[in-house]
Design brief:
alpha/beta; TIM Barrel; eight-stranded parallel beta sheet; 8 strands
């Protein structure tokens, strides 16, 4: 079964940056499988987040896998510094690749990192058909990237189903945007297995309980299929 292994990936964009180390520790104790890092350049998306030095600092604080999502216009230029900083996986957006996306995949793979590709809500699954079998992770954006706290876009669910039917069991199908205790079930039922959650984790009094609820609801949706 594609999503037999459920992964919860708290997004550090929603953490308290004044106490980032504490929030990372709380998420790890609470059962986070990986940590999601949203890197924004203010160009591809209308917001700025953090860069290489912050990823470096995060890597010193944790042994968790750092799922690093480059929401930037030139992922090929910056992939190497982020991998050297401690990123275990680099996800680039298909929308920024003007030439053959297989070149970007090879470039990231040669750095020793896992490779992911992300699609915006308006980008069809067909946009990645030339590389869907070559990446480790496909990230379906279920909000428009750039800001947290947006409402989940239900129209993205058919795209998740389409991609789930094209991907191998060893590949991760990730959903990013508006994931909470309710929408995680919809995404899991559609075939996703990896769930990025920001305010649904760090916005709660009990981070561990929030992660457990997301996992239980996702697993319940899979079991009920």
């Amino acid at each position: 079964m594609r999503n037999a292994g459920i992964r919860i990936a708290p997004s550090l964009l929603a953490a308290d940056f004044a106490r980032l180390g504490e929030d990372i520790a709380a998420a790890t104790r609470g059962g986070a499988d990986i940590l999601h890092l949203d890197v924004m350049d203010g160009h591809f998306v209308p917001n700025l987040s953090f860069g290489v030095p912050v990823v470096e600092a995060i890597a010193r604080e944790t042994e968790q896998f750092l799922d690093t999502h480059l929401m930037i216009t030139d992922p090929g230029r910056y992939a190497e510094p982020f991998v050297k900083a401690g990123a275990g996986g680099i996800t680039f957006h298909i929308e920024v690749v003007e030439d053959d996306p297989r070149t970007v995949v090879r470039q990231i793979r040669d750095l020793g990192a896992r490779v992911g590709v992300a699609l915006n809500p308006g980008t069809p699954a067909e946009a990645i058909e030339s590389i869907v079998d070559q990446v480790d992770l496909v990230c379906v954006m279920t909000v428009w990237p750039g800001f947290g706290g947006q409402k989940f876009i239900d129209d993205c669910l058919p795209k998740i189903e389409t991609l789930a039917g094209q991907m191998r069991d060893d590949q991760w199908l990730e959903v990013d945007g508006g994931v909470d205790a309710s929408t995680v079930s919809l995404c899991a039922a559609a075939g996703a297995d990896t769930f990025v959650a920001g305010s649904a984790v760090f916005g709660r009094d009990d981070v561990g309980a929030a992660i457990a609820t997301l996992r239980d609801n996702a697993q319940g949706a899979v079991a009920g299929k």
